[in-house]
Amino acid sequence: TVPLELSKIPEGTLTINGKALINGSDFLAFKAAVGNFDELVYVGYGIDSESYTDYANVDVSGKWLIMKAGEPQDSNGNYILSGSTEPSQWSNQSEAIGKRTEVVKAKGALGYFFIDDLNFSRYTRYFNYMRRNESGQMGLRNDSKDPVMMLLTSEVSNILFPELSTAASSTPISASVNLNLNSADEFIESENVVAF
Fold first, then answer.
1. What are the mean pLDDT values of the chain's consecutive 10-residue runs (196 residues total)?
2. Among 53, 70, 49, which Cα is nearest to 164's?
3. Are 71 and 87 in contact, with CB atoms under 8 Å apart?
4. N or C: which end of the chain has fewer CB within 10 A?
């Protein structure tokens, strides 16, 4: 048999510095997360590559992170990673979250808040579709703890980290964060699964 998992949209709240936020309107979370935290780490764009890193001199193991979409540019408007006016794959809508999630996992962090105003409405439509149809995301059951990504707008991120727009480098953030997001995930055993 093949162990599968149907991940459902989690229900509950995210409370930041005493302000309760609702999943689906104030932020978007597609996986369950529970816990209380009093320190997060801001890691700029959350990029870690051979030519550039936002993780220099900062320990993120066992922590929640906050990062923004995009990538750094020099004073001429060229992207630092590509060295040209063309952005790298770190800005690619289809690859950006996956690349950041891989880095977050490799660094041992628990999860991250991703600030992406440009794509928030796109992910909201997907979230609402999944909720409306009571559907989920089917995949192979993964017993390892993959990091959780929560999508925020700049407005909500200001509750968490008001200095975001002026922060020059990675830094610890003192904040009271309560995650109370539970999901009714279903575990399924299947005998007839073909993967390509």
1. 67 93 92 92 96 94 96 94 94 90 96 94 88 63 74 92 87 93 66 59
2. 70
3. yes
4. C
Strand partners, 20: 15
Q: Which residues sit opposite 35 in a β-bridge?
A: 179
Show the tokens assigned to 196.
Answer: 């390509």
* Burial class of 1 by CB neighbour count within 10 A (0 to 12, 13 to 18, 19+): exposed
Residue 130, SS3 per DSSP: helix
- 131: which residues sit within 8 A by CB, 6+ positions away? 9, 24
Report pTM: 0.86
Take residue 12 and report the two structure tokens written for it.
Answer: 């509950």
DSSP-based three-state secondary structure for 168: coil
Which runs of consecutive H residues, i.e. helices, occur in 42-188? 96-106, 117-132, 154-160
Q: What angle do CA 173, 177, 182 make, to 5 degrees?
A: 140
Q: Which region, left, alpha or beta, applies to residue 48 given φ > 0 means left and ψ of -120 to 50 means alpha?
A: beta
Distances (CA, A) of 63 to 67, 84, 134, 136, 173: 13, 34, 31, 27, 11
